[in-house]
Design a protein that fits this description.
Strand content of chain A: 15-25%
Strand content of chain B: under 5%
Shape of chain B: flat
Largest interface: A-B, 27 and 23 residues
Order of helices and strands of chain B: HHHHHHHHHHHH
Number of strands of chain A: 10
Largest sheet of chain A: 6 strands, mixed
Oligomer: heterodimer
Order of helices and strands of chain A: HHEEEHEEEHHHEHEHEEH
Number of strands of chain B: 0
Radius of gyration of chain B: 27 Å
Helix content of chain A: 25-40%
Number of helices of chain A: 9
Distance between the termini of chain A: 50 Å
Number of helices of chain B: 12
Radius of gyration of chain A: 19 Å
């Protein structure tokens, strides 16, 4: 945590003139962002069109939308792995031009290193960033305990279950103490029970960290159960269709909150909005 | 039958632990029987081929060259064995047998090491640098299409009759195999893993050493099996064409003296050397990629 505090203490110097204009209060701000890709046939494909979205510091924002609406592309832009074709992306008031060290990214597919055991996977981030070895390992062991993997330090990823691999991925990302946490359908490959448990664990870890989260999912239930606000994206090219604050009390139990009458109400409202986009995307898929 | 015995003996529970034990046992005996059969047939095959060859050769002599296998041209197993015994006991015409094997092995190992190192370095560099790969691509393909054994006379002129020319030939043979595998291995690295490492904070160098090379390692190691055999080919062919020592020269001398048994005996020696080397590479592979779920290892055969 200390390392990050000192980071943000230095950063005001880096703030560009645009940074001052942009909502610098926001943890993440996407301003009229458009992203086009060149397809293999040489045509241009527009994944995002004029998308504007901001996430406050410490806010948990879930992004839902039909398949292929550019949800993952949004995360790519925030992380700095990709650049927008038009518009600007700000992270903590700074224009994103490269990978920001304050960002953590949990990928949809397994992205843990298969040739490193659990301990080495989790310690990788601090070691990449030049934390002294002893200190890095100490932190890694602490995180192993926090995600409940004690006793599995020497296992390789292929020896773990899907849920355990996700825990490794979470610890690997969170050990860097990111202030911005990007998650791309992180639990979509897990079975429903494990998924709920992982959701609870994520909420617990997040509440201790005060990071801004962008959580991409195609599952509206998961989105409402986890988030402070749900952002519905239109069928591609994606843009924001609606933003819904989720006023359910915390701490939440991911498996049980869906019986709350307010949850059902929210679900119905957002689903009204989402359904038409899902239908559009479905019709397109059929035509192909 | 079951119905009958049930009727005779009264009640028998369907799934007792005895049944499970019995099944495990019968499974084990079946596995054992299969293994025995495989080994027995392997030995039988060897006996039939060697025995047939020996019989054919003896028949040829017994029938006054009417039919059979002419041992003068094609050798005979007992003659090969006698040749091996002579070499082990009295040494070869160029000196003791172990010295010849040591020379060939040394050439092959040095050539192998240099070839692998160069192949990995070039493979990783060109694999990561698309621009350089595009520029050099056609030349590498052209160089690869040359039958590289043809370079042997050139190396003999350049490096002389000693060890260097053989090492050079082994290097050229090994390099391309390892290079193409390392190159492909680097290109096949999972993009998610790269993105993850970059976000976690990996520098360009850390990306190479901790993600790209470990990921390409299975490709590189797969190429080592083939490439050691090629290093041996390089050493032997080099000696064959112009050498003063080594197993290749033994083959050459035996051939020049119409000693078919000698040629076969040298082949047997080389095969043994290659088998030992293969076992070493497999051991190395298992050590280096211990993280991998156990696949491939037997499939390689």
């Amino acid at each position: 945590m200390n390392a990050i505090m000192s980071d943000s203490a230095i950063n005001p110097q880096d703030i560009t003139p645009q940074g001052a204009v942009a909502p610098s209060a926001a943890g993440i701000a996407l301003e009229h962002v458009t992203k086009r890709f060149r397809t293999s046939k040489g045509q241009l494909y527009t994944a995002l069109r004029d998308l504007t979205l901001s996430v406050a510091p410490g806010e948990f924002c879930a992004v839902v939308g039909p398949t292929g609406c550019g949800k993952s592309t949004t995360l790519g832009l925030i992380s700095g792995l990709e650049r927008p074709s038009a518009g600007e992306v700000y992270v903590m008031g700074n224009l994103v031009t490269d990978i920001d060290p304050r960002i953590g990214y949990v990928f949809q597919t397994d992205a843990v290193f298969p040739w490193k055991n659990v301990l080495k996977n989790i310690v990788a981030g601090p070691l990449f960033r030049g934390v002294p070895k002893a200190q890095a390992y100490e932190r890694a062991r602490d995180w192993i305990a926090r995600v409940g993997l004690t006793g599995f330090e020497d296992r390789y990823p292929h020896q773990l279950s899907g849920g355990m691999r996700k825990r490794v991925a979470l610890a690997q990302t969170l050990i860097n103490e990111p202030q911005i946490l990007l998650m791309d359908e992180p639990f979509s490959a897990l079975d429903v029970q494990t998924r709920n448990l992982m959701g609870d664990e994520l909420l617990q870890l997040w509440s201790a960290s005060a990071a801004s989260v962008v959580f991409v999912t195609h599952d509206l239930e998961e989105a409402i159960a986890l988030a402070d606000k749900v952002c519905v994206i239109t069928a591609g090219p994606g843009t924001v269709k609606g933003i819904y604050p989720v006023d359910l009390p915390r701490p939440r139990n991911v498996a049980e909150i869906r019986f709350d009458p307010r949850f059902v109400e929210l679900y119905q409202t957002i689903w009204e909005d989402l359904r038409s986009e899902v239908m559009i995307s479905y019709e397109r898929a059929k035509q192909r | 039958m079951n119905v009958l015995s049930n009727a005779n003996h009264g009640l028998t529970p369907i799934n007792t632990s005895d049944d499970v034990d019995a099944e495990v046992k019968s499974h084990n005996t079946r596995a054992l029987r299969r293994r025995l059969a495989v080994n027995a047939l392997r030995i039988l095959l060897l006996v039939v081929i060697i025995g047939g060859w020996e019989l054919g050769a003896r028949l040829y002599v017994a029938t006054n060259e009417a039919f059979g296998i002419d041992p003068f041209f094609w050798g005979q197993p007992s003659g090969v064995w006698a040749q091996l015994v002579t070499w082990v006991r009295d040494g070869t015409s160029q000196g003791p047998l172990w010295a010849q094997i040591a020379v060939t092995l040394e050439e092959a190992v040095i050539g192998f090491a240099i070839g692998v190192a160069l192949g990995v370095v070039f493979g990783v560099v060109l694999g990561r640098n698309h621009f350089l790969a595009d520029v050099l691509g056609p030349y590498i393909k052209a160089a690869n299409s040359i039958p590289r054994v043809m370079l042997a006379p050139l190396f003999l002129i350049g490096f002389g009759l000693g060890m260097q020319s053989k090492v050079a030939l082994a290097v050229v043979l090994v390099f391309f195999i390892v290079f193409f595998n390392a190159f492909q291995g680097v290109r096949e690295v999972d993009r998610n893993l790269l993105a993850n490492a970059r976000i976690l904070g990996a520098s360009n160098r850390q990306l190479s050493t901790q993600v790209i090379i470990p990921s390409a390692l299975s490709w590189i190691l797969a190429s080592l099996h083939v490439s050691f055999a090629f290093a041996l080919v390089g050493a032997v062919v080099g000696e064959f064409i112009g050498g003063i020592q080594g197993v290749g020269l033994m083959v050459q001398v035996a051939g020049a003296n119409f000693n078919a048994n000698g040629v076969f005996a040298a082949i047997v020696i080389l095969a043994l050397v290659a088998l030992v080397a293969e076992a070493f590479v497999t051991w190395l592979e298992n050590r280096l990629v211990r993280w991998r779920p156990n696949q491939a290892a037997d499939a390689m055969l």
